[in-house]
Design brief:
- This protein is an alpha+beta fold.
- Helix content is 47%, strand content 23%.
- The chain has a 5-stranded mixed sheet, covered by helices on one side. A 3-stranded antiparallel sheet has the order 3-5-10. A two-stranded antiparallel ribbon has the order 1-2.
- Strand 8 and strand 9 form a beta hairpin.
- It starts with 5 loop residues before the first strand and ends with a strand.
- The protein binds adenosine-5'-diphosphate.
- It is found in: Cell membrane.
- Its EC number is 2.7.13.3.
- One of its GO terms (biological process) is phosphate ion transport.
């Protein structure tokens, strides 16, 4: 049996003194279990497309295929390698975000340009995924500037917008908006009429590789890392990620920026 370390803490609660016994190793054990899970997840995510790829390579090597059939296989292979590239890019992004403070390249970023880029990406993705499209509405509100890193802010916002597009069925409504709040804070918000999320999943959504609908995530090019990236970017910018959703009622993801990071532009 493994030794269990017990530590004793003396806590003061007002005039009262309480003795707390706790297992000190719990946090360490938890971190170690999370690391193991993460490595297992990454390996699994890489192994799946690799297995498919090597199967196709073997087929191409052994079967005398006609040109159209060959091209079909090559197309499927390109898809799998794209999937691995996206995964590796997301992993690198995450490790950069986790390992460093906000870089010196932070400056003032216009919310109008961020929203416009977000819109372009969301429309392109919607055209690709939804046969009869989505109703996509963008509201740039009172245009402001945000103190931060352009690429990071864009990646957080477009992750939220593209999730809405990816999980909302064809014909659904997606609203993306920026608003300056009365107290000087700023709110970037993505609302969708998609499937919604049961409350027990909500606190876990920003965990790496946590997915509710695994097949929908894969089919639409998801890595399971998007919301983990959003959470890190949000924290680095002193902002708060809020998730409101109910099963069958759609979802609303918002990033609320503190007033100190929001600057209103003259009209
Ligand atoms: P993924 O690449 O799987 O989309 P994310 O980290 O971006 O990974 O999201 C984690 C999970 O949260 C998704 O797999 C999905 O189950 C759920 N999710 C995210 N956004 C939405 C949304 N707008 N509507 C419903 N479910 C969502």
């Amino acid at each position: 049996a493994r030794p269990v370390k017990l530590s004793v803490h003396l806590h003061a609660y007002g005039n009262e003194r309480r003795l707390l016994l706790s297992r000190d190793i719990t946090a360490l054990e938890l971190a170690e279990a999370m690391r193991r899970d993460f490595v297992a997840n990454v390996s699994h995510e890489i192994r799946t497309p690799l297995t498919v790829l090597s199967g196709f390579i073997e087929t191409l090597q052994t079967l005398p295929l006609q040109e159209p059939e060959r091209n079909r296989y090559l197309g499927l292979m390109a898809q799998q390698s794209q999937r691995m590239q996206t995964l590796v890019n997301d992993l690198l992004t995450l490790s950069r975000l986790e390992g460093s403070p906000l870089p010196d390249t932070a400056g003032w970023v216009g919310t109008g340009a961020l929203l416009a880029q977000c819109e372009q990406e969301a429309r392109a993705l919607s055209a690709l995924l939804a046969p009869s499209g989505h109703r996509l509405e963008f509201d740039a509100g009172q245009v402001c500037e945000l103190a931060g890193v352009h690429n990071e802010l864009l990646s957080a916002m477009s992750n939220l917008a593209s999730n809405a597009v990816r999980y909302t069925p064809s014909g659904g409504l997606i609203r993306v908006s920026w608003m300056l709040l009365d107290d000087g804070r700023g709110r970037f918000e993505v609302q969708d009429s998609g499937p919604g999320i049961a409350s027990e999943h909500i606190p876990r959504l920003t965990e790496r590789f946590y997915r509710i609908d695994r097949s929908r995530s894969r089919e639409t090019g998801g890595t399971g890392l998007g919301l983990a990236i959003v959470k890190h970017v949000t924290q680095r910018h002193g902002a708060e990620l809020q998730i409101e959703s109910q099963l069958g009622q759609g979802s609303r993801f918002s990033i609320v920026f503190p007033a100190a990071r929001v600057r209103q532009l003259p009209a």
